[in-house]
Amino acid sequence: MSLAPLLGSREPGDDGGGGGQERRPSWRGGAAGGLCASWLGRVVDTEEAWAQLQFAVPMILTSMAYYGIPLVSVMFSGQLGDVQLAGATLGNSWATVTGYALATGLSGALETLCGQAYGARLHRMLGLYLQSSLLLSAAVSALISVLWMFTEPLLLLLRQDPEVAREAAAFIRPQVPGLFAFAFLQCLLRYLQTQSVVVPLVVCSVAPFALHVVLSHLMVNVLGFGLAGAPAAISVTFWVACLMLLAYILRSEAFRETWPGFSAEAFMYVLPTARLAVPSAVMVCLEIWAFELLVLVAGLLPNSTVSTSLIAMCTSTEAIGYMTTYGFSAAVSTRVSNEVGAGNVDKAKNAVLVTMKLAVLLCIAFVLLLAFGHDVWASLFSRSAVIVSAFGGITPLMIVSIVFETMQSVLSGVSRGCGWQHLAALTNLVAYYFVAMPLALLFAFKLKFYAKGLWVGLICGLACQTFSLLVITARTKWSKIAEAMQEKKASYVA
């Protein structure tokens, strides 16, 4: 593994402004190939785009695999009966909202800290930041574990069905050990991501996912553990994935400079890490909570069965779209943090521009699939002709929301790379809870647009979020960020 702070390989001294010679990929195919390469070169920086694609695709596969692990357990729980399915679904949502989303958000601090330290070649700092993040994640996971022990009374307080609440609590409790593993796993993932090490992430996510399918079947259907077996399989799988990544880091010679071994010095960096981790967690949680809240509000609409199913289908579709763009969000976060740390301002700006162009192309492909295949997609969720037809009616709104979701996902990656988590968190708070939710309630209940009204309100919030992040990015003083990083580097060296 190269310790160069770049995703793509470029000649030393190339600052993106013509100061060095870039190594472009070889495009073959004679005159037609040359014409194609020339056209592509005018549209997008092909070297940067290719480097980001090599980074983004493995990250997409990794996020899909981790997303699928609890989903598989919910599916196996559904084989036990309707009540178990309802309990597992509710429990999975509760675990995501109160635990997994928070753990994911906390690890976002490493995208800034490790990414910029790697770009500045402060290699030893990566290991110290990782350890401080692991300590913080362990402490927060312990607090969440206490909350999870009171899942049933809390759900009853939220007026959930007593039987379903009891099954949800049964689905949550065996996941407590897995929560610690998931939190540690996210930290290790960010540590490797910021060094552009992505192939091992795919191996350590896809292989555990395959194991999880077998393990879930074994524990639920063969050994007869019932509902408790499905979440227990989640815990085992997350620990397997975590230990695989940890073993790779400890045994690989490639990390001898960025992993100095366990050190008490890491305690000194817990508070600096927390200053970025807390707003990062808030940023992630505010968005996820908003989508979950829409599903709950849909249950208050007339014909709530159809409305709830429809909004749940929409949020699931949006989640899949988000995971697809997450690869590019991670790519731009890494590229920006690495280049800012290295003082390469022009390359950082170029990385943002290229990622936005790639995101637009991805968005177009996703939108076309949804526009022409919405009936087929909806039929995977429900056999009800009414629900399938209703999903077709809301598809144009889904297309608009996916466009904004794609853009804001990439811009959020820029925020993490620059260390603007506090600005992004504030933007999410205003966009979702002062714009989206009030308008969603107005359109759905007062103007009687019902489910479509809820989604129109969400679109307004997404638009506000996207344009706010776009303005912040456009007005960025990149040179000042780079100068601050160089001062930090100088103080560390001194």
Model description:
Mean pLDDT is 84; it is low at 1-29. The longest helix has 39 residues, at 304-342. The chain has 17 helices and no strands. The protein has one domain. It is globular and about 60 Å long. By secondary structure, the protein is mainly alpha-helical. It has helices at residues 30-43, 46-78, 82-107, 109-119, 123-149, 151-157, 162-172, 176-193, 199-222, 229-251, 270-298, 304-342, 345-381, 385-418, 421-446, 450-474, 478-493.
Number of helices: 17
What order do the SSEs take from the amino end to the carboxyl end, as H and E? HHHHHHHHHHHHHHHHH
Radius of gyration, taken over Cα atoms and rounded to an integer in Å: 23 Å
Number of domains: 1
- Report how far the terminal alpha carbons are from each other: 28 Å
Helical fraction equals: over 70%
Structural class: mainly alpha
| Beta-strand fraction estimate | under 5%
Shape from CA axes? Answer: globular
Report the average pLDDT across residues.
84
Strand segment count = 0
Query: Biggest β-sheet, characterized?
Result: none
| Poorly predicted spans | 1-29
Main location: membrane
GO cellular component, one term: membrane
GO molecular function, one term: transmembrane transporter activity
Membrane topology: Multi-pass membrane protein
